[in-house]
Amino acid sequence: MPMTVTNPPRRAAVIDLLSNVDHAIHVNEIASKLGVSETLLPALSRVLDDLVFDGTVSPRSGQRFRLAKKERGRDREREEVEGFLSVHPRGFGFVQRERDIGDVFIPPEAMIGALHGDRVRARIIARGARGAEGSILEVLERRPARIAGTLRRRGAGTWIEPDDSRLRGPIVLPAGADAGADGEVVIADIVRFPESPEEHAEARLVEVLGPPGTPDVEVRKILAVAGVIEEHPRGASEEAKACGVEVPASALEGREDLTHLPLPTIDPEDARDHDDALWAERLPEGGYRVWIAIADVSHYVRPDTGLDGAARDRGCSIYLPDRAIPMLPRELSGNLCSLLPGVIRLCLCVQADLDASGVLVKSRIVEGFMRSQAKLTYEGVARALKLTTAGNLQPEAEALHGELAVLREISSLLRASRMRRGALDFDLPEAKITVDQATRMPVHATKRARDPGVAKAYQLVEELMLLANETVAAFLVQHGAPTIFRDHAPPDPEKIARFSAICKKLGVELDPDDAQEPKKLSAFVKKVKAHPNRALIDTLLVRSLKQAVYDVQNVGHFGLASDAYLHFTSPIRRYPDLVVHRGVRAILRKQRVDSSDEAVETMRKAAQVASERERRAMQVERDVVDLYGAILMKESIGDMFAGAVTAVVSSGIFVMLDDPFVSVLVKFEALGDDAYEADEESFSVTGKRTGERITLGDPMMVQIEDVSIERRMTFGRRVSVGAERGESKRGEQLGKKGGEKKGGRRAKGKANGRSEAAGPKGGKERPGARDTSGSKKKSGAKRGKKKKSR
Predict the structure, then answer these.
(1) Which CATH class is domain 146-226?
(2) Segments of the chain scoring below 70 in pLDDT
(3) How much is the pLDDT for 680?
(4) What is the third-level CATH fold of 80-141?
(5) What per-residue confidence (pLDDT) applies to 130?
(6) What are the start-end ranges of the E strands in 178-275?
(7) CB 704 within 8 Å of CB 639
(8) 311 by DSSP, 3-state: which?
(9) Residue 37 DSSP code
(10) For the structural domain made of 625-751, what CATH number should be given?
(11) Which of 127, 142, 150, 122 minimizes the C-alpha distance to 51?
């Protein structure tokens, strides 16, 4: 006899019941089989009405119901999916599946005890207009236990209000937890996860950070919410230390000696690890030979060790304006694996022969050891090649001028070939945050502007990294070895159609069908390079494309117009590269490559975790940039700045300021003396009384009204030209307060000539762009690693 249900019946339970009967059954029988009490019969009727409405259930006479015909065909073997659960603050969620094939909607009552960030197994129980709907069957892996929140005390009760609104609270602390005062920011570890939607998680207090609002406290909150722990597990650190500080002679046996090649590294000035080195020469018969040496991390990080488990869990390194959080302990990432000059290091090296036009003729991959001759910087290389006069001369780069010129020549040929085949080339705006290292307070936020000559030095390295990645992908495909590919599927037609409509509003034509062909879409990107809203168009297009992911299936890379692509060049900071290295080494050593279903499934799960960790890292990096932007603007309340509209949301518009490069939310009520509403069809905001239309790319002068550091948001209001000149009484008062403190920043917007009549300079919407081509612009200690992230 079924237990009596004291909560409203779940859709999943009703569908599961009807899937096990081959005839229509009465509502009372459904209630009886599900144990629904008489008081909950109205709730059951509402569930049945919803299922009838979306076509999952068919009604019959006499209040009888059965599964709809379209559902009965799959009622015995309903599809089960695995993925990470993403919960909306309102209670429902989505199981995020791989490869952008569509998420599965999970209603609140079907969550069981799962929390945001858990890896779950769910069953698809219905398909309707809003896509697949499912019910969670079990939690496969719990989210990171560490959380951040606000400590609350009421009488004898103590609990935590999670900062992450997606995490169901309150989270209960045990009786007697006496550390911290009400309202302080705390870090805690969940020690007991809920097993049903009605239960609350229980936690153990780890650390009291103090009052909210300071950079250190807020950054640590962001990391805790994302489940990022800066320190490595003790076991992993001990294993890294046990590897030593020098490469032993025994590790060189069986490897090819590459020490006769100079193989300089080329990185940003502040790079802390160096995982690639380059060399090239002209061949006597014409053409080129190029060597791309990559640090052999797989020699030190072996499968099923503490080091491997920690690296797999981290997925990638995270780069913040004031620090880096490496995937590997610094004993490896900053020393033994890093290709430092003048010391022996282990490597895997791609040797590629190209003809005079840059076409690959033949290649081989060797397991070798090397001694880099020099640690070069992008700025030094650009100066040596006479691409720029900015920055200081670097003697090591000047000494290698001739060889660097050959590398530059090769990269130009490779880039031209890649553009001809249809690779996409974006130039997305990016914020550069300057931080005082002593106080960790942000000093300025500017739009990163790279010297054109230095940008060409970046391209030099990027093109050779792309060559190595494609060469290794072809090598593994040829040998039929399972590996982790970097997939980028063609764009979704619906999203492209929406983007095409936005372009029309901006005065640019794009046939949605053209966007399905890399060559035609690449031609469009090239066409809009001179458009005044080029940065905005690029950003919106990137958001319209699918996100690049890691997977064991090879579907090609749309953004690079490549049939097979993977990540090989950054094993120090990306876990998939490490997996690729292991496969390459096994083939080179003529060892058996495990292609069993179990091995492929293990690799598939590692790819799925890596994709999720990459998204997490990008979100953390964006959140920290937003945080520093908010802290900066806290001192600018009352000041006025010029900017451009970059997004229309349900509550208002986002305006990206020109300088500082910070995003500001202007709510509808702060747009002016009118009732404004969003028009989703035209991607604009319209005033009901005046008919005024504000659309993407429009210039706007904004006065800062409020800042929420906890929410990492800056709020402003639109000001007229009159208010900009000081005619607004409130503007005078607030401007005086802010302008005197910072030497009259109010006047800066006017001095630059940026007013509502001026042309926009573009900018990025606060939520950030999706990674499509795989290009991931880094901030902080590893700035410039874009070259290896496609």
Answers:
(1) mainly beta
(2) 1-8, 54, 69-78, 98-101, 128-130, 680-682, 721-790
(3) 59
(4) OB fold (Dihydrolipoamide Acetyltransferase, E2P) (2.40.50)
(5) 62
(6) 185-192, 202-210, 256-257, 265-267
(7) yes
(8) helix
(9) -
(10) 2.40.50.140
(11) 127
